[in-house]
Amino acid sequence: MAKTKRSVKKENQAGQSLRTLGLFLIPIILLAGVIALFLNTGGGVSFESPVPIEDITVERVIITGPPESPQHFEIIVRNSGPEEVTIAQVVVNEGVRPFTMEPSNTIPRLGTASVHIDFGWVEGEAYGVTLFTTNAVAFGVDIPVAFKTPENNSQNLLGFTLIGLYVGVIPIFLGIFWLPALRRLGHGAMTFLIALTAGLLIFLGVDTLVEAIEQVVAVPNPFQGFGLIAIGSVGIFMLLAAISQREANLRRNENDKRLAIAYMIALGIGLHNLGEGLAIGAAYNVGEIALGTFLVVGFIIQNITEGLGIIAPILRQRTAIRDLLLLGLLGGAPAILGTWLGGLSPSATLAVFFLAVGTGAIFEVAYEIFKMLQRDTEKRPAPMLVVSGVLTGMLLLYITGLLIK
Amino acid sequence: MAKKLSRREFLKAGALGVAGTLGIAAAGQIGSNQPVRGHHLGGDHPHGDGPHGMANVVGEVDHVKNGFNPTDLLTDFDYGNVSTMANGQTLREYWIVAANKMIEVVPNIEFPAWTYASAEPDWKNPKPRVPGPTLRATEGDRIRINFFNGSDHPHTMHFHGIHPSEMDGVPPLNVQPGDSFLYEFDAEPFGLHQYHCHSFPLARHIAKGLYGAFIVDPVGGRPPVDQEFIMVQSGFDVDFDDANDFYQVNGIPFHFQNHPIQIRVGEKVRIYLVNMLEFDLINSFHLHANFFNYYPTGTSLTPSEYTDTVIQGQSQRGILEFSYKYPGIYMFHAHVTEFSELGWSGHFEVLP
Fold this sequence. Notes:
The complex is a heterodimer.
Chain A: H1 5-41, E1 56-64, E2 72-79, E3 85-92, E4 96-97, E5 100-102, E6 106-107, E7 112-118, E8 127-133, E9 138-143, H2 154-176, H3 179-183, H4 187-215, H5 225-250, H6 254-285, H7 293-311, H8 321-332, H9 334-344, H10 348-376, H11 383-401
Antiparallel strand pairs in A: 1-2, 2-7, 3-4, 3-6, 3-8, 5-7, 8-9
Helix pairs in contact in A: 2-6, 2-7, 2-8, 2-9, 4-6, 4-7, 4-10, 4-11, 5-6, 5-10, 6-7, 6-8, 6-9, 6-10, 7-8, 7-11
Chain B: H1 7-20, H2 24-31, H3 63-66, H4 70-73, E1 77-78, E2 81-84, E3 90-106, E4 109-120, E5 124-129, E6 134-138, E7 142-149, E8 158-159, E9 180-186, E10 191-196, H5 202-207, E11 211-217, E12 227-236, E13 246-249, H6 255-258, E14 261-264, E15 269-275, E16 282-287, E17 292-296, E18 305-307, E19 309-313, E20 317-322, E21 328-333, H7 337-341, E22 345-351
Parallel strand pairs in B: 1-6, 3-7, 6-11, 12-15, 14-22
Antiparallel strand pairs in B: 2-3, 3-4, 4-5, 7-9, 8-10, 10-11, 12-13, 15-20, 16-19, 16-21, 17-18, 17-20, 21-22
Helix pairs in contact in B: 1-2
């Protein structure tokens, strides 16, 4: 039976795409062949290393003691080396200690395991644990201050919530309370304030980026800390830029645009506070933090300026209470989430990624603010006002930073 | 010789052993050699012996694969192939090979050791071990050591004793891989000495295992005792940072803690104690619940001290003599306590 033109065309199309698929598959099939050849013959190159390369990353140390359990260290490690690794012996402070491991002494690549050591630790003292692999590679685990690791109970959760509340939510709302006063300012002062916000954000962005870079050393090698920084920061920057472009096309209303920018600032600052919370929680977990009242006061003072930054774009327009509330929560509440994550399940990998996302978001918002400043000062250029505002913003964070560093 | 005690069993006995030094009643209980019921030192849970249990490794090294058992080395004295020379002097001939050997020093960690292996004539059937064979002669004997370097680095045998310079085993008298050398000298003075490799870098060559004891008995011998043991103290730097990671006597850390040395109440015990530790300046020996006569370097038959702790610097050695008054389990260990928790710790099980 004769085929219709249409069906012939369809068949041709199907044939075409099958051929395309085949062409795409050829290099992949060849690749499989090359890999098989390499695995079988070594390709003429000797890959035997004279020394086995082993790497272990300590993910967490959990210290327990009476009355809940006997005195005990649990060290959660990840195999971040290229091959599986086996823990042979454990030394605590110049003494070989009996130990057990879960699920096994042998940890597959990228796998994790718990090393259990009964040890009569003394509160407040420092300990050094050495894990010897079967190839006699020694990995040190520092316990700078021995104390019972906070458990995931409601009391600790409440504690972390309060810390997050103090360093994140409360200061931001305090900053927002400046809104009525700032509304009385003239055009020039408002421009100055917006430029100041840009300065704040640039400083915060650099701060966040540096913190992300500092934490890279704690990320297991295969998880590529710097790669995470690139993906997180560039990804969020471009995503936010695309969103704001779409918003700009959708909304003709300048007030709406400005409110959108305020939301983006709040988001950027929120991501920064998430990172800050993670750091506080993690430090609290290893007893490294002197979370004295002084530090909390410092955070409150510094983060008030963040609240100021959020409201800077919307000084000249009426804003619903609901929006102000949401802005404050968006900017501050992630600090609570951060302390939970950092305190109860610290992960350097996660921290680096969130810090990178925070960096990208903050820089994008700073970019949006500069665009806004350009629009605002088109008719009456005030370059020195902008320069002094940006510098003041950075100096403000520098000086308040003296309190918490 | 020594039976293996389970950890748990030992701790029970050990607790009472300590008590035994305080109370005769408890000692009597141990003396019955029945499973002892006593206060358990550690908590009763799966991880070792609780937070306050003794330092110890997990597992047991493969002595068969290692080729030696520290317990056997205690009483392994090598008198050589004995013959009489034309002048009537006793000749002791040894065949020794320097050999590379992977030794499981603690369970699951192998150390690329350099060893002195005692062999049959023409260097047949060498048996690598750390420490090397305990060579034993009488003062005035002629010692002839056929040394073959079967490893891949130059080595020597440098003896502590009195001998001509060409027999001193120091560079430039390095014995290259594949070469041999005949060390020949008279055994003097009587006492407890040692031999070790003197190629450079010296500390590494010694620390990798090239050392052993050299006992020269006085003519007529030392006064008879019931048991004689050789204990060579040393360490292992398994990660090559020029600091010891583990410490031990006779090659394997914690061995005599987990395999007590059995002796009997009242038995006269003599220990030949040599310190071949590198990287650390001093080592020491402390005997629990007892005192011993100490003969530094063994060059006198009169003890210099009646004590329970002796310190030895690098390459120092001496002879200890004691007997136990009460049955029980008693520790002996370096009173450089850090060393003891890293392996230099053992037990005597004193049977009634």
